[in-house]
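Duplicate of #3305? Posting structure anyway:
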């Protein structure tokens, strides 16, 4: 689905919307024209019923930009659709500076948001996203050419393009039972151990600093009494930590609330039990699988079935 903003009443913009709708229809893409208010009220329906729509937003004035900014505050999650935001040409292009050099997180994007912005006549599609510092980060993704179409300026994946954390602090949660095995906090403030060395390498490549939180006692589970996640998983869910380092097992419940990395260490679990003493085994135990009444019923069924089959065969019914 492609959703256009219909708050713009200018004839040229309206013609543009209908032209695009017709072109999308020719390519068998269903389109819907809506307003910011309708988008806010129907966003949850799109989230539940559509795999991943493309939202095309047309902005021409400070008013429409403000309305879209308010809309992005109320729709959650903002990273669900793919956004294409287009700033339309107007006398003076009053929004050009904010379009080319966003100074804050005006559209409330996050790290996972896929928002492409086309700023007036500039033929470059720019990605807008944010980390945690309420600042919009930009990345020149593609060049639009009328003759050659869309030309990508990089072949990197989404997260490879956003690997620079700009010196942000990454808070690390851990569990006491695994702390000394995988993560070591040295006296001079540095970290060691397998995961500690891995964090150091990641911090160099991704440009972030590490903050080790106090280890907790539990890995984390869902508390039905308190209706919250406990332990290190709880720290991740409540945004007290950014990454958890311990020997976490993958469960369905945890996968619904956090993301796992690819397995870094594979371990095997074995279950041991004492071999039973055959001398103490009672042969009558095999008969205790069913009650005496059940055994009698089974015996009667077997005898009755045998008699009936014999009579049927003797009478020549087969």
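Output from current build:
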């Amino acid at each position: 689905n492609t959703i256009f903003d219909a708050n713009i009443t200018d004839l040229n913009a309206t013609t543009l919307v209908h032209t695009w709708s017709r072109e999308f229809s020719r390519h068998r893409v269903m389109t819907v024209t809506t307003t910011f208010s309708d988008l806010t009220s129907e966003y949850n329906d799109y989230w539940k019923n559509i795999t991943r729509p493309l939202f095309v937003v047309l902005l021409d004035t400070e008013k429409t930009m403000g309305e879209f900014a308010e809309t992005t505050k109320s729709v959650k999650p903002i990273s669900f659709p793919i956004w294409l935001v287009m700033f339309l040409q107007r006398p003076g292009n009053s929004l050009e500076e904010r379009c080319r050099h966003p100074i804050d997180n005006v559209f409330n994007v996050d790290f996972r948001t896929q928002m492409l912005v086309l700023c007036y006549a500039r033929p470059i599609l720019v990605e807008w996203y944010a980390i945690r510092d309420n600042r919009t980060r930009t990345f020149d993704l593609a060049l639009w050419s009328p003759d050659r179409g869309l030309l990508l300026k990089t072949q990197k994946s989404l997260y490879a393009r956003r690997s620079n954390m700009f010196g942000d602090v990454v808070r690390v949660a851990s569990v006491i039972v695994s702390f000394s095995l995988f993560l070591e906090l040295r006296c001079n403030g540095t970290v060691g151990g397998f995961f500690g060395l891995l964090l150091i390498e990641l911090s160099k490549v991704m440009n972030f600093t590490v903050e080790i939180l106090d280890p907790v006692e539990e890995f984390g589970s869902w508390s039905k009494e308190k209706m919250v996640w406990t332990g290190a998983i709880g720290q991740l869910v409540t945004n007290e930590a950014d990454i958890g380092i311990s020997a976490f097992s993958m469960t369905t419940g945890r996968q619904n609330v956090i993301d796992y990395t690819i397995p870094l260490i594979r371990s095997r679990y074995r279950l041991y039990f004492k071999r039973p003493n055959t001398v103490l085994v009672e042969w009558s135990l095999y008969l205790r699988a069913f009650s005496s009444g059940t055994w009698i019923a089974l015996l009667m069924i077997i005898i009755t079935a045998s008699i009936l089959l014999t009579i049927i065969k003797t009478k020549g019914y087969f």
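Confirmed duplicate; merging threads. The longest strand covers residues 136-145. DSSP finds ten helices and 15 strands in the chain.
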